[in-house]
Design goal:
With 634 residues, this protein is an alpha+beta fold. 43% of the residues lie in helices and 17% in strands. The strands form five sheets. The protein has a six-stranded antiparallel sheet, with helices on one face. Strands 4-5-6-7-11-12 form a six-stranded antiparallel sheet, covered by helices on one side. Strands 16-14-13-17-18 form a five-stranded parallel sheet, sandwiched between helices. The chain is globular.
Length: 634
């Protein structure tokens, strides 16, 4: 929807704003399909922003500013623009790039700490010949960069960056293996050896002969303590109202990526209250007619009964239900590889939702709220409470809370006890996973489809063991793992928006709400066996009881097994085509993929995880074939 790119010469002898750099940026952005491109030059730097015409009424924007010293490019949304403009003596209607220029004049590289929103920006200080690249706390706007001697190339998409620096096509075996094993790249690396990404909540700084990265925001380590339980509810409601209001589109109708859960239903309710006269559309994916669906005690397959109860309570909400075509996942994955230069982690789920999102444009909806990040913030289930009680030796309280949760939960006593012990600092010292964290990564590698030679040559296992990334077991607060994994998924946020021609925004990932929820005591999220206790109280006045009291979780693409089995001959033929690529044969165990694909027809509807994992391997074969045709080398 919006793009930013640039070329900066750190050498003071560089020619200011060479026409060749302007032409290179225009060619790279035009090749990615952007119809409107604006470029500016200053003291050896050339910056460009681009826009899709359909996104003009969205909250996000792409702007350039030049204050005589600093050349600034901004893409995204700035939520506290009014406050910053007043603080920095800017016009109330100043665009975000001008505000960022003034913020850097006042605070230098401390400026991003003052900004709220989803953004990426670049500042070129021509007088001091310093370049700054910054990214928002949640990492919703990505920014890649490549340094070659005293030149820095940057862009918010890999295809654009590679078009600017076509000689940078050497792959990083460790990161490529990470994508093929875990499905996601690290937050600050890419599959290209010399291309980096600015990490979320970080600012990268460059000068001649120097470059570093500084993290400007951390998860809060302190706790909020209010006198009354109602104070937490009131505070969360005020924050949620602000988070929704600043993300509503300027003029176009409001869309909601709607499910039967608390998070997305809450977004619909708050949007209806914040914009009572606006058209409100809820877009929901549903199983295809006649689909054979799985059954588990704690999940459901069709959101329809819940979203209909919400529509009854919100008369302005119009429900749009859709099911996807049988082969939609291959179409969307091929398109995203071209737009973003990376494969989807779960194209089956994306394809299941795709028809609903694609229908948004037919109703003039180009801005959509989602409930993303809710499970980590507002509707967190309080899973850290029981391990914390064990650590504090509060055994009577632990027993009471454990018994109450077991009575209410759809999970077994044994599952709840195992989770509590695994996430307790006290007990995990005596568990093998605490002393041998490699067991988690060895398990991941064993499930993967890497060839033995590439697995060994890439050094992936040692690379992951040496990293400080948290693992999902043995941690006192597994939210850190979920946050880290969520941030690793941001690299395709922009390409998916362009594919569906819809701006997606996540109020529950608002920085203010993250800080509040992470500092709120765990007993506010789990009380007397009631998981998601805070969210149920916050939303109880706006949602129907059927949703507030629902303890089940909706399942995306519940017919995944049936869809893959129906497409088996075509998938086998496509694997044969991709297997002709030397890079595919080098990196993947094609025989293992073929063998499991041959057995997939015996999978039951409940074996969704196994089938999704296999389907991901097929998409990885497509991705590796794409890299091979792009001229990538290891």
């Amino acid at each position: 929807m919006y793009a930013i790119a640039g070329i900066v010469h750190l050498d003071p002898g560089a020619v200011a704003g060479g026409e060749s750099d302007v032409d290179a940026l225009r060619r790279a952005l035009s090749a990615s399909g952007y119809p409107s491109i604006e470029a500016r030059t200053h003291a050896g730097a050339t910056l460009a922003v681009a826009r899709d015409t359909w996104a003009m009424n969205c909250r996000k924007s792409a702007t350039l500013a030049h204050d005589g010293v600093r050349l600034v490019g901004f893409v995204g949304r700035l939520d506290n623009a009014g406050i910053l403009a007043a603080t920095l003596d800017q016009s109330p209607d100043a665009d975000p790039a001008a505000i960022v220029a003034a913020a850097h004049q006042r605070w230098s590289d401390q400026a991003p700490e003052q900004l709220l929103g989803d953004f990426a920006y670049t500042v070129w200080d021509g007088d001091n010949r310093r370049l700054y690249l910054a990214r928002d706390v949640g990492g919703w706007q990505i920014l890649y960069y490549l340094r070659q001697s005293d030149r820095v190339f940057f862009a918010d998409s890999l295809p654009v960056l590679l078009a600017l620096a076509p000689d940078a096509r050497r792959l990083d075996p460790k990161v490529l293996a990470d994508v093929l094993v875990d499905g996601l790249p690290p937050v600050d690396l890419t599959v290209w050896r010399d291309v980096r990404a600015v990490a979320p909540a970080s600012i990268a700084r460059f000068a001649r002969g120097h470059g570093d990265t500084r993290r400007y925001w951390q998860l809060p380590q302190t706790s909020i303590r209010y006198a009354r339980d109602e104070d937490y509810v009131d505070a969360a409601r005020a924050l949620l109202d602000d988070a929704v209001r600043c993300r509503l589109p300027k003029q176009s109708p409001v869309g909601i990526a709607l499910s039967g859960g608390l998070d997305s239903a809450g977004m619909a309710a708050y949007a209806a209250a914040a914009a009572p006269g606006a058209a409100l559309f809820g877009f929901t994916g549903v199983p295809a007619p006649g689909a054979v669906l799985p059954h588990t005690a704690h999940q459901y397959n069709d959101e329809t009964p819940y979203v209909r109860s919400l529509c009854e309570q919100l008369p302005s909400l119009k429900l749009m239900r859709a099911s996807s075509a049988p082969d939609a996942e291959d179409h969307i994955n091929a398109a995203i590889i071209q737009l973003g230069g990376m494969p989807l982690n779960n194209s089956l789920n994306a394809a299941w939702l795709s028809p609903a999102y694609a229908a948004a444009g037919l109703h003039g909806v180009h801005s959509m709220l989602t409930g993303g990040f809710g499970n980590i913030t507002l509707s967190y289930d309080g899973a850290t409470l029981l391990p914390a009680l064990l650590d504090q030796a509060r055994l009577i309280r632990f027993a009471a809370e454990f018994a109450a949760l077991a009575r209410r939960s759809t999970h077994s006593y044994r599952a709840i006890a195992s989770s509590s012990i695994a996430n307790s600092r006290y007990f995990s010292r005596y568990r093998k996973k605490r002393h041998d964290p490699s067991s988690w990564f060895v398990q991941l590698l064993g499930r993967a489809f890497l060839s033995d030679g590439f697995a060994e040559a890439s050094g992936w296992l040692r690379y992951r063991l040496d990293s400080d990334a948290p693992i999902p077991a043995g941690s006192a607060d597994h939210r850190a793992w979920h946050i880290a994994r969520s941030q690793r998924q941001r690299h395709l946020h922009g390409p998916l928006q362009r594919y569906w021609r819809v701006e997606f925004s996540q109020p529950l990932a608002d920085r203010r709400l993250i800080e509040f929820c992470m500092a709120t005591p765990p007993e506010q999220f789990l009380r007397n066996g009631e998981a998601r206790y805070l969210a149920r109280r916050v939303l109880s006045d706006r949602l129907p009881a059927a949703i507030v009291q629902n303890r089940l979780r909706g399942r995306q693409c519940p017919e995944a097994v049936q869809r893959v089995v129906a497409q088996l001959p075509r998938l086998q033929a496509e694997l044969d085509v991709h297997a002709a690529s030397p890079l595919v044969r080098h990196c993947l165990d094609v025989a293992k993929v073929r063998a499991q694909l041959a057995r997939v027809s015996d999978a039951t509807p409940d074996e969704i995880g196994r089938v999704q994992h296999l389907h991901r391997a097929l998409q990885h074969a497509r991705f590796l074939d794409y890299l091979d045709r792009l001229g990538a080398t290891l």
